[in-house]
């Protein structure tokens, strides 16, 4: 399939108001799309089906996980090197003093709660609204794609749910056969072209909370957990601290149990989970919907050959079929509604947080997605 027909099919799907998702996984030169053949809203609670999942932050909410079932979809892919983007200049997102004071107040409340209670970390967020001139989601998707090579860049649409676009640096987890990979990502600073960025004890602590939580949560379902050293990774105009965690699933592990164990992680909710989630639902004062939820491929069959000798006619006898799922946390994302983009941004709060700096952090995060809007 060539680039023109790939994107023409997407545009036609959108103009018919039929559900679709188009995405490219990090450091992957393939763009894939799923086009659902009808406009029904399919859901999953068991995560036993095969397809593409789009799940909300609050899984217990009425917004349960939307599924594009594999058997109801057309599927296509192209090489991302083929994609051309338009030239454009983005407009600055104007900082709103009222929103700033509101966020600073929310963060201060979070710090107070941490000081007086057992809460250690809470991730507090806000929604920033920007009027846009170009609302073609495919154009915005292509712009993100050309800027964020090491992100999961996606555009997802369902006429009964809405239109979401994002470029997330965060893997929730992936499972290939029995192998589980996840990451702990937290701590944020602007990217400034220095070779050795400095991190504070506050940021290391905030990220360590996420690593400890993840390893503890996956322990009942795994054997041999390996935790990498902490590295700095770049996500567009930002840097984060990252640890990679790999392990092997035991026979007790079901995909749903791993989802319930990990989502939402302290990277996007806080620690302890119940208390931080209750604080968010009570005080954030808006509905996160799919922001800090997760999205990705569910139970897809992947065939790999054990024998690299292509001339070996018995190759098929050595082919291994593995089931694989990969989910990304829905961050650096926005919801498009008519001529408005709702951009969602947040950051982790601990007792050492400074409210003004936390506001700045959300402003920097909003530039990831804001920079592709005009
Ligand atoms: C919550 C967000 O990002 C998360 C919070 C981070 C932090 O607190 O430093 C860093 C990366 C993400 O895990 C967001 O981008 O909105």
UniProtKB/TrEMBL annotation:
Top-rank taxon: Bacteria
Signal peptide: none
Cross-referenced InterPro entries: ADC_synthase, Chorismate_C
A Pfam family per the record: Chorismate_bind
Ranges in a coiled coil: none
Domain spans labelled Chorismate-utilising enzyme C-terminal: 100-365
Name of the molecule in the record: Isochorismate synthase
Organism: Winogradskyella sediminis
